[in-house]
Amino acid sequence: MAMVNLFRKLFLRPALVENQVIASDIAAAVNFRPRKPLKVSVADAMADSEDIPSNIEAFATSVASTNVQHGPFGKSISVETIKDFATLPLLFEGLVNDFQLGSHLGYNVQPALFGGVQGSEAARIAILVNPLYANSDEVVELLSILANPKQHKHEFKLWEHASRVIIPHSLMLSLSRGEIDKNSLSNRRKINSDPKKHSFYVALENIIQWGVRQNASDVHFNLNFNEEHSEVRFTINGRYVAPQMWRMPTQTMFQILSVAWMSGTGGNGPSYDTRVEQQCRIALKIDDKPIMLRWASASTESPGPSVTTRIIKSDANILTLEQLSYLPDQIATYNRAMNAEKGAIILAGVVNSGKSVTIASLMGSLPDYRKKLGIEDPVEILIPGMLQKSINRPLEGDTGKEFDAIAKTAKRFAMNDILIGEIRDKATGMLMVDIVLMGTSVYCTTHTPSALGAFDKLASDMVGVSRDFLSVPGNVKLITYQALLPKLCTCALPLKCITQQGHAEYKASGNDYIKRLQRLYDLDESMLRIGNREGCPKCRHEGLPELNGFKGRTLAAEMVEPDETLLSMVKQADSIGMRRHVAELRGSTRFDDPLMVGKSAMECAVYKMSTGILDPREIEPRFHSFEREEMMRASSKHYAEHVEKQVYTALKKVR
């Protein structure tokens, strides 16, 4: 009896700070091994027991040989996810707070009520427990108390199916914090049975449906808990817009996001938590077509948390390079690189620049007799004739080991072409190196602001690919950088209208702007167009005037096939020399010539501007201003003159 009383004092009441000892000394007597030493107060443990020895260590020794038998309190069941927890045959009512558990047990052991409210005939009780504590003596003692009505003020009936429900630590934390309650589990059950019956789920579908019909690439839910209402924004034609029709009460948006998270897969956490970064995937059916939302949430403080969902049309038709608006000589460059069954083809660009769509086009255009494999985080676009594998990588504690098994298997699969998605860290960088060195073609993407910037990104400490590897001929066959720009509608206006009413910001400087374009590019002014802000029935967006005048997007790209001169500069990390070398390849080709060798992505955009499909004002934000371009050219000219003067002086001395 003395041991039981001491046990209750040590583990079923909060610990005091003074006179602390390590509880593992006592726990050894009852075969319990906590993950961390638990500090408890000797004074508190002995306060109400007269027969506890004054020497705590002697008491522990005296009971060390005692054979403690655990009584039969029913079986236990394991639950891995909140979805499984919601399917338990008895309704979860909530946690029972009548028992003052020690602070160290609060997030590991919790009595819970199922089936009915406390005191009702249907009420049952079970212990929710972290796997590490499932067979601990604290749980056994707590079950003993619950099974004996004389030891507590309320009579509870243990759940006959399982006295212990073993749940993951993350789910236990959410329950303890109140993030998961009876209502949220009721929502989860509705989603499990039929998501379409839940009103908040229907609201999510309506929002995404509107975005899909407007060709939005992303939907942004921006919570502002300091305001009554919050806004939903969409990325349409590269613009971050906020339709007033989707402004809604903040609590409604939070409920929509909570329900959306419940319907997702591959998420880190059982519920939407505004305090941490989270990611998951949500499958929807919009207008009878499958849509995948790639969820990424940020625990921003001001004005509040934000969730961005990328809209991925997983079964979309694979477009050809021509349909993606690549130019003929650029397509020929791709074909040269893809014909060789080794080396890497790298697609570079900023976020939302269409890299995944382009790389799907490349993989889809490969002949059927070449065996193809996709390893992605996650699979975004289903590509006919290709084996595809999703890799779910956690936001925290990611070691990249998720790639190991599939990478080893790929070596035995006799693959010709392997898509490995985004190169963003050492795990993916080393995967690319490994596959290239085994003589297989690799297709991958990376986030950089230029094609040549991909070399610096791969060689950075973050990715860790050596410059020795990058400078070997054939290891990197081709690097493409691409950007997406709003394409002018057929209602576009002549460039000279830039100085007229409705374009006030250019009214004073418009003529200088036009003259600068002529100095830089020597283009036919009659072919140049700007967007019509009034729009037309084809392009007008009610409530979103910033989208008027544009219809869809077009692509501007620069492509680099590394030669030996460039590779020697890569090895020496001579970024300036690399840029000058590639620019020299353009030679005397005019800017309104469709040949793109040696031209930058900005110069590709200028070519499309010369054909009347791009507004010059849309080119500058994606790259840099035309004024800056003029300054850079002047600087390069002065540098060339300086080098020429140095060479002349050196030759003169030799003579």
Describe this protein's structure.
The chain is an alpha/beta fold and 655 residues long. Among the domains are: 70-186; 195-313, Beta-Lactamase (2-Layer Sandwich), CATH 3.30.450.90; 321-484, P-loop containing nucleotide triphosphate hydrolases (Rossmann fold, 3-Layer(aba) Sandwich); 627-654. It has 22 helices and 23 strands. Strands 8, 9, 10, 11, 12, 13 and 14 form a seven-stranded antiparallel β-sheet that branches. It has a seven-stranded mixed β-sheet with strand order 17-16-18-19-15-20-23, sandwiched between helices. Strands 3-7-6-5-4 form a five-stranded mixed β-sheet, with helices on both faces. A hairpin with a 7-residue loop joins strand 13 (289-298) and strand 14 (306-312). Helix 9 (199-213) crosses helix 10 and helix 18 (564-571) packs antiparallel against helix 19. It is elongated, with a radius of gyration of 33 Å. The protein starts with a helix and ends with a helix.
Average of pLDDT? 81
- Radius of gyration from the CA trace? 33 Å
Shape: elongated
CATH level-3 fold name of the domain at 321-484: Rossmann fold
CATH class membership of the domain at 321-484: Alpha Beta
Low-confidence stretches: 1-72
Report the strand count.
23
N-to-C terminal Cα separation, in Å?
A: 108 Å
Second rung of CATH, namely the architecture of the domain at 321-484: 3-Layer(aba) Sandwich
Count the DSSP helices. Answer: 22
Helix content range of the residues, please? 25-40%
Sum up the structure in keywords.
Rossmann fold, disordered N terminus, Beta-Lactamase, 34% helix, 7-stranded mixed β-sheet, 7-stranded antiparallel β-sheet, 655 residues, alpha/beta, 20% strand
